[in-house]
Write a structure and sequence with these properties.
By secondary structure, the chain is an alpha+beta fold. 27% of the residues lie in helices and 26% in strands. The protein has a six-stranded mixed beta sheet, with helices on one face. A five-stranded mixed beta sheet has the order 3-2-1-14-15. The radius of gyration is 26 Å and the shape is globular.
Length: 505
Amino acid sequence: MKKDKINTEIIVNVHPLEKRVAVLEDNRLAELFVERKDKQNPVGNIYKGIVKDVLPGMGAAFIEIGLDRTAFLHYSDIVLDFLEIFEDDEKPKRLNPADSSQIRELLRPGQEIVVQVQKGPIGSKGARLTGQISLPGKYIVLFPNKNKIAVSRKIYSSGERNRIRNILNEVRVPGFGIIVRTEAENADEDDIQREYKALVKTWKLIDKQLKHAKSPVCVFEENALENYLIRDLFGEHVDRLVIDDKAFHSRIIDQLQEVSPDLIPLAELYKEDSPIFDAWAIEKKIETIFHSRIYLPSGGNIKIEQTEALVAIDINTGSFTGKSSYEETVKKTNLEAAAEAARQIRLRDLSGVIVIDFIDMNDDKAKAEVLELLRRGLRRDRAKNKVYPFTELGMVEVTRKRMRATIMANLSEPCPMCNGSGRILSKDAVTMRIFRWLVRSDYFIRNERMRVMVHPEMLSHLRTHNDEFLNYKDQIEFDSDTSVRPDMFKVYSLPGMEDITSKYS
């Protein structure tokens, strides 16, 4: 075993309203994924859509794919292979790729088109689409309308690159292009070929749906949690995968049987009574995501501020005074901050431009150490990122591609008390907290009558989610109190009205 081997565990909590996946590295929460039933991530999904409007002046079209807002397709992202051509025309030719006004030669309102979501909707903007369809797996990405094999540049060995090409050439059929992912390096021949065949089979099922399904319709969900878990999270570097739902566990085992059967022994079903996230102390760790200030082991701290333009991370020595020179104190604080900043960037899924304001250092060697530690921490990041050298002002800029809605956006909503300048827990998140509180307390105070007090707006929301509390209908009653914050709740035992909220939080 390598000295720098990190113990990695993936813990999965399944509930009818949401699924949560926590990635623990040496027992520290490194990544958190939340899939809400009503807030699915559409990135990577394949749709059979309908052209709503064509705007030659913008070189773009708006496509109806069944989401709340129409999606955006630019001229440069149109692929003729997946285009329903006009009945009265021959297949159109893109004479000038630079002339986006020619989009009207390719698309008309009411026309059906096959597209894939490139970027999810955010704020008032609809999803960004592409006509280049791809199906990602753990080792390869399949392109139904290509013919070439391209290998990740991160696989440096020419011998390994040729080995993988030969493995794929044995099973590859015409009409399918392939990009080989970094994960394929040193992978077993059978695993790579098995995944290729599975992806081809998936595409054939999609193609069949495309021929018969009525648009607008989603024909493939890339980010269904099962797919994402197996494709991007669960690999040989993971020591353990623990799932608390029997049906979900069975689906994972079935998919692993097709792709990576050697990983099946690492996938466990959690059978204990206590909530799985409590058993790994994950709930408390999740709460820190909402803290803008994070404390470092030595006594220093980092402060994270998110704005529309960028993310600012400020480093402070705090109570840490060091034992020798000021330079050593600053270096130690900056090194701890670099490691923590990398973890927080992954955990909070921060994206765009991230500016880290380290404490000023005069020693170039110390700066290089801090920079290397930050880069090392981000090497495990699945999102594309780049760390730039120190500026003259002692700052480091990081750019990171947005993969999904941030955890903050998923678990919170604009605060009604500060005109949107801050955020509070969303009503769905509070609902889940109440539910988890009841599950936790159930092992100690079975059948005791309780009253749950919430803000009036929260009470209205809970009345639309009564089904989630059916198991407790004879035990609890909900009531409102304007003094309770919108993102909080209070639980009182009846009839004495003793506040027991903190006992099982």
